[in-house]
Structure formats: structure tokens, C-alpha cells
Amino acid sequence: MTTSVRSSDSRPAPGGGVTLPPSQERIQQKFDLSIALTLSTWPALTLSVQNSWGGPQSAEKRDWFAGAISDLYASTPNADSAIDVEYLEEFLLQVMNDEFEVNVEDDSGTEVAAKIVGLRKMTLQGDFAMVDEMYAKWRERQARGGDSVNFLQAQNDDEDKAADEESSSEDEDVGGDVEMGEAPELVKAAKEKPAPRIDEDGFTEVIGKKKR
To answer: pLDDT tens digit string along 43-71?
Structure first.
């Protein structure tokens, strides 16, 4: 997911005067950024990506994951009242199971869902302070060789040169260490093997693998 974000959170009124509130597009950009940043600090997802539990495209699946959460809000009627912490947690855990074959058995899914729901409320109110703080911490991790997340932060003109230099170094940091607390309780989801079936002639029937 590529999220374009500007440094300034408000727009000056034409000719000066009262500052205009952020546009809906701006709010959506900040919310999308907050989702990607929140997922980047979820140890369960980080371990899944680092160990390729979602296959060789595990990192791409993480980027898709962030977009899927954004789409969930966009496609759900009355999303801000319909999507509570419990609803979003179930969605998060289902994706972890389906895409990475991992059962998250600690409470981190609840924490991630609660954070995203809270950030949704803040960004809708034009409050981007926490998102900006999260982004600043992400930049610090990147400077120390943190794991790469696929989103773009647009800078002011006087910051473009420095940003370009940093982005080139960040591209080389994929696969680096990520700071995290205690390892979450993860259990690889077991796949049940169907019992063999014997036909009337005593031959074993071959059962094809179902597509997901």
C-alpha cells in the first residue's frame, strides 16, 4: 500500500485568515498511514513475514493486509459504528489464519484492533498527532535498520533531498531486525488430512486438494 502524506496537516485559507480543516482525502491518507504503521509494529505479523509463513510473498501480503483493512472501512455501511474492536479483531485474526496459517493466541490482536479503531476516530476529527508520532518512531527504527514497510511520506520542498537519500537507504534495510517485546504465542494452523476412502473393488480413491 502506497500512502502519500504531506507534512502540513491543515490548509491556509486563500488570502490568509482562518485555517481550513483537513480534506477528506487528507484524513483518509493519514488513516491509511496509521494502519500500515500499526501493522508494522505487530510482532505476530512481523514474525510471520520474517519466517515467510505466508509464502515467498509474505511482505507483499502485509502490504495487502493494510489495504484490506482500509477497504473494510470503505465497504462497510456505517463503518464507524459497525466496526468495533471485537469485529476488527476477528477480521485481523482471520486474515492471519487464512494468509499466514497462524493462530495468534495472545491478546495482541485485540490491542492492534483497539489501536486502529482509536486512530480512526482521531483522524476523522483531524487529529493527526499520534499518527505523526508513530511515523517519527518508524523513521527512527528505519535509521537503525528496521523492517521495511511499503508506504511513501511526501515531504516539503526543503526536505525532498534528505527524504530521497533516506528512502534509498531504507530500501536496503529489508529483512533487518525489528524491536519488539516478548514473542507472541503463535501456533501454526494445522491442516487436517482427509482419511482415505476405499471403493467397492478395494481400491483407494484419490481425493483432490481443495482450492482456497
So the answer is: 999 999 999 999 999 999 999 999 999 99
DSSP conformation letters of 50-65 = HTTTT-TTHHHHHHHH
Closest CA to 175 of 146, 210, 151, 204: 146
Query: By three-state DSSP, how is residue 28 classified?
Result: helix
- Asked if residues 69 and 61 have their Cβ atoms less than 8 Å apart, the reply is no
Helix and strand tally (H, E) in the chain?
A: 8, 4
Residue 58 CB neighbours (<10 A): 17
At residue 142, the pLDDT reads 87
Give, in degrees to the nearest 5, the angle at Cα 24 between 21 and 30: 90
Helix, strand, coil share of the chain (percent; to 5): 50, 5, 40
Task: Provide the H-helix boundaries in 41-149.
Answer: 43-50, 58-75, 79-82, 85-100, 108-124, 129-143
Q: Three cell numbers at 11?
A: 490548509
Cβ neighbours of residue 73 under 8 Å, at least 6 residues apart? 31, 79, 80, 83, 120
pTM over 0.85: no
SS3 category, 137: helix
R_g (Cα) of the chain, nearest Å: 21
Return the sign of the alpha-carbon dihedral for residues 131, 69, 26, 80. Answer: negative
How many angstroms separate the CA atoms of 77 and 15, rounded? Answer: 39
Q: Which residues neighbour 130 within 8 Å (Cβ) at sequence distance 6 or greater?
A: 34, 119, 122
